[in-house]
Specification:
heterodimer, A: about 240 residues, alpha+beta, seven-stranded antiparallel sheet, B: about 400 residues, alpha/beta, six-stranded parallel sheet, globular, binds zinc ion
């Protein structure tokens, strides 16, 4: 199947993705996704999987000379994070909770609010940034497979260009559901991983890990464990 | 309220701090009626447990009366008299569901701190450093209990504070140590350390059917308790070589199971003991594995090593060759309080054991500093101190 987005990816500087089905199977399979993504854009792959048709700037825009230079010297590396957690709840319950994006700030500490429109397809995100700043972006669901996968990407003009997917797989035995999150961040128009690190904490990897940990606590235990506000001696 | 706060190694103070409040729907607030110092609190007192912060309230073995409950608390109500597991478990994760409460996935808000060291995070513990959740401890007038329905066990009428208090931590720890030994008729169990946990391990080994239990320590009053109160044969390892003595006392076979009820501050003798002390004092080694080494060599072939004494970091020079070639089984872990507490209460009600025997001293909470010093240096024949807030 040759789609519009396949052509886009093939024409970029990066190694061509010749087989959309291959990526679909990686996303669906248990191989470490990031290993396969080291040199490729997650956004482009997700768009390819979705079969094109939507205009995602990161996947479609031609790169400028400066961007090509920063790519070459490794300055413009997007930040990719992959984390998996097993949650002792059924697939449907976890998928349904996540699918309502307005629930996400409950366990994503840096996200202040998510407002959903167009029947859940579009969403507006507001996140806390350092020094009391806020960053905002609009996102769109690229792919939605009930009880299996939700993929999204930010739209043109986002403060933080980001894309990712969450995948739900039944765990073996009576262990519940394996929940995998893969995310890619880039600052709009630019450049440095350090700036991203500032925005998403010292270690974005750990932040995603913490979010999944809180998601698990919420889904299994019904509340997020905390000690904030407990007594201690300051003297 | 008044609470015992850790300010640094060998520096605990009774400070005035705000009262705890309900922070989550499944919380309860407990008015502490009795609390005590556990041997593993001494590891904190001595500064061997990483991730303590000055001002942390300590203490994890306690009981009291429920004074407030969160909106999702189902089984408890105001006025209930309960003993509380030192280990916090959510009750809903895979581990809690399989009775491995100290491995709870959800009760440790500081779990991310553990992952680089342990690979995965374990459950939270009251007053036991930020690695274990940073929860305010129970050497205080009031304490917040997360997941209270699971951690609190109601105390039957007629059971005294002295009988109920050890069921919070020392008794289930000793009991789990014995339970992990997989005791069969005729088995001989050796217990290193005759402090409160070791004494409960001895009694528990008998409850679980051991033929003979041997207690090993160096303090005469603790050895006397092991012998008189708990029915153990005893070895003072400062007087005779424990390994040789054990062989002689077990018909040359060696103990079928060996329980470590001491942990990272084991007091070694001889060259290896000195080696560990020096490495630990310069922080090249965080734990002293002297006892582990001795247990591995002393244990019979195919026997069980059961570790209940706390280890927190790294150890070296473990005789792995001996352990491997002798086909030993290692079992260890923080105790799964919620799994054992109801059973232990039954034993007390049936008169199988009176846990009150462990307390040698009663003191007001305000004298916590003196109590820590007395317990640490085993002065005045101190075995265990009950503190009254
Ligand atoms: Zn303890
Ligand atoms: Zn749990």
């Amino acid at each position: 199947m040759e789609t519009e987005s396949d052509k886009t990816i093939n024409s970029s500087e990066q190694p061509p993705v010749t087989d959309t089905e291959k990526w679909a199977s990686i996303v669906g399979g248990s191989a470490m996704v990031l290993f396969g993504l080291q040199k490729r854009s997650l956004r482009g792959i997700l768009t390819a999987i979705a079969g094109g048709g939507l205009a995602y700037h990161g996947a479609t825009a031609d790169k400028s000379i400066t961007d090509k230079v920063s790519d070459a010297v490794g300055l413009n590396k997007a930040l990719k994070v992959e984390k998996t957690v097993t949650i002792n709840r059924p697939v449907e319950e976890l998928y349904n909770y996540w699918h309502d994006f307005e629930n996400l700030p409950t366990f994503m500490k840096h996200v202040k609010s998510v407002t959903v429109s167009e029947g859940g397809k579009r969403s507006h995100w507001v996140a806390n940034a350092p020094l009391g700043q806020e960053v905002e972006w609009d996102a769109e669901v690229i792919k939605d497979e009930p009880n299996r996968l939700i993929a999204w990407a930010s739209l043109e003009g986002a403060d933080v260009d980001n894309s990712g997917f969450v995948r739900f797989t039944p765990a073996p035995g009576d262990r519940g559901t394996e929940v995998k999150v893969v995310m890619e961040y880039e600052i709009a128009g630019g450049r440095l991983t350090a700036a991203l690190a500032k925005l998403f904490g010292e270690e974005p990897e750990q932040q995603v890990g913490d979010e999944l940990r809180r998601f698990k606590q919420l889904m299994e235990a019904g509340e997020i464990a905390t000690t904030e506000g407990q007594p201690r001696c300051h003297g | 309220m008044k609470a015992v706060c850790w300010h640094g190694a060998n520096d605990v103070r009774v400070d005035n701090v705000p009262d705890p409040t309900i922070l989550n729907p499944r919380d309860a607030i407990l008015k502490v009626t009795a609390t005590t110092i556990c041997g593993s609190d001494l590891h904190i007192y001595d500064g061997y447990i990483p991730s303590m912060q000055p001002g942390d309230i300590i203490g994890h073995e306690f009981m009291g009366e429920i004074v407030e409950t969160g909106r999702e608390v189902r089984k408890l109500k105001k006025g209930d008299r309960v003993v509380v597991s030192s280990i916090i478990g959510c009750g809903q994760c895979h581990y809690c569901a399989h009775q491995q409460w100290s491995l709870c996935d959800n009760s440790n808000p500081g779990g991310a701190l553990q992952e680089p060291i342990f690979g995965y995070s374990t459950g939270g513990i009251f007053g036991y450093s930020h690695l274990f959740g940073g929860y305010a401890g129970a050497q205080a007038e009031y304490v917040r209990i997360p997941f209270a329905d699971h951690g609190c066990v109601k105390i039957p009428d007629g059971m005294t504070d002295e009988q109920a208090l050890p069921i919070s931590d020392a008794f289930p720890t000793g009991y789990m140590g014995a339970d992990m030994c997989d005791i069969k008729p005729g088995d001989v169990v050796a217990v290193w350390g005759c402090g409160p946990v070791g004494l409960f391990a001895i009694r528990s080994a008998y409850l679980l059917g051991a033929e003979k239990v041997i207690g090993i320590d160096r303090f005469p009053e603790r050895l006397a308790m092991a012998k008189v109160q708990c029915g153990a044969e005893v070895i003072n390892y400062e007087e005779i070589d424990a390994g040789e003595a054990l062989k002689e006392m077990t018909g040359g076979r060696g103990p079928d199971a060996c329980i470590d009820a001491v942990g990272l501050e084991a007091h070694g003798t001889g060259l290896m003991g000195l080696y560990d002390e020096v490495k630990q004092s310069v922080r090249l080694e965080t734990d002293r594995p002297h006892i582990l080494r001795q247990m591995i060599v002393a244990c019979r072939k195919g026997g069980v090593i059961s570790v209940m004494g706390v280890y927190s970091g790294f150890i070296d020079k473990l005789p792995m060759g001996a352990a491997f070639n002798k086909g030993l089984t290692f079992k260890m872990g923080q105790m799964h309080g919620q799994r054992y507490m109801p059973k232990l209460i039954d034993h007390v009600l049936k008169g199988d054991i009176d846990p009150a025997f462990a307390f040698s001293h009663h003191m007001p909470l305000t004298e916590a500093k003196q109590a820590y010093e007395m317990f640490k240096h085993k002065t005045d024949k101190c075995i265990k101190v009950l503190l009254r807030p």
